[in-house]
Amino acid sequence: MSVSILRSGVLDTIQDTGRYGSGNLGININGPMDLYAMKLSNLLVSNAMEKPVLEIHFPAPQILFEQNALISITGADFSPSINGEPISNWKPVVVKRKSVLQFSYRKWGARCYIAVHGGFCVPKWLNSYSTNLKARSGGWCGRKLEKGDEVPFGETDLYFPALLKESSIEEMPWSIDAKGAYQFPHEISFICGKEWDLLTAESQQKLLQNNFIIHPSSDRMGYHLRGPEMKPKEDFQLVSAAVSFGTIQLLPNNLLIILMADHQTTGGYPRIGHVISAHLPKLAQLAASDPVKLKPVDIGTAEQLLFAQEREIQIIATSCQERMKTAICQA
Question: Among 84, 213, 211, 63, which residue's Cα sits nearest to residue 150?
């Protein structure tokens, strides 16, 4: 059982929830840019949340399903269709063998996630399936997917003829409403970092009062922000320290960068702030030239928002599991 890449996209990689425990070796976590969408894509097809999925950008790939499959697409809306028939995001879809998935145009978001029941079968590297492009390891041969690649996925005991009925595709009668995680998409909350006070008072005010623009040079390693220059109070030297997904650093050119999924493990630039975990999904869905408004919050607020998001995921997990059981019994 496999999918074949008929036409490659700009950047299509295998990602799971991330590679933890190797930071002391200088090996970063990788994983999805939008962990929320990635987890929900797996839940929709009755996978464990950590199963590997495809993360794709636009222009997107064209994919042939060699066997019947249960899939879901979450995150960005790239107008997906199967054999020319539009299908829904955030919903499980049964796909008949020899069907072709393609994406016609970008409506919203920067990256989407394709999960298949059983998960994609690739070798683990350092206890993770995620692709590390810099190390050329993990995922599918340590690289993005190319035309001609055939990526296997796991066996399933689903009885597809009963689920498919008369059509070559069948959307299951439930979906996820994920609007809450992406409300006010350009407003990104952060907590102040250890070096926040290195900024002049004027620069702090500029950061809070102005919008920034994501520069086209941005990628999975970091979002370069263009906007007013941030000036430090004085010259300084810092010892390299740990950084994380969402760390906001002040670069030597007095501009800001937000570290993303493929960030390095340590850095010597001032850590001005850290994007709160609950807002990383909507940050990940911003693209080049999109505006960003940074808003400060305290740690208590950041924790409340994260706990609420995690509770939502657990509720969705239980609901999807029950709906799938019902659908299989009725098939």
Answer: 63
Can you identify the CATH homologous superfamily of domain 187-297? Answer: Cyclophilin-like (2.40.100.10)
Question: Is 289 in contact with 214 (CB distance < 8 Å)?
Answer: yes
Q: Is the pLDDT of residue 201 over 60?
A: yes
pLDDT tens sequence across 34-60: 999 999 999 999 999 999 999 999 999
Q: Where in the chain is the domain with CATH 2.40.100.10?
A: 187-297
Whether 159 has a pLDDT exceeding 80, the answer reads no
- Cis, peptide link before residue 59, omega less than 30° from 0: yes
Tokens of 320: 């999807």
Mean pLDDT for the stretch of residues 118-130: 94
pLDDT of residue 166: 66
Q: Tokens for 216? A: 């086209």
Residues 6+ apart with CB under 8 A from 164: 68, 94, 96, 170
Give this prediction's pTM.
0.95
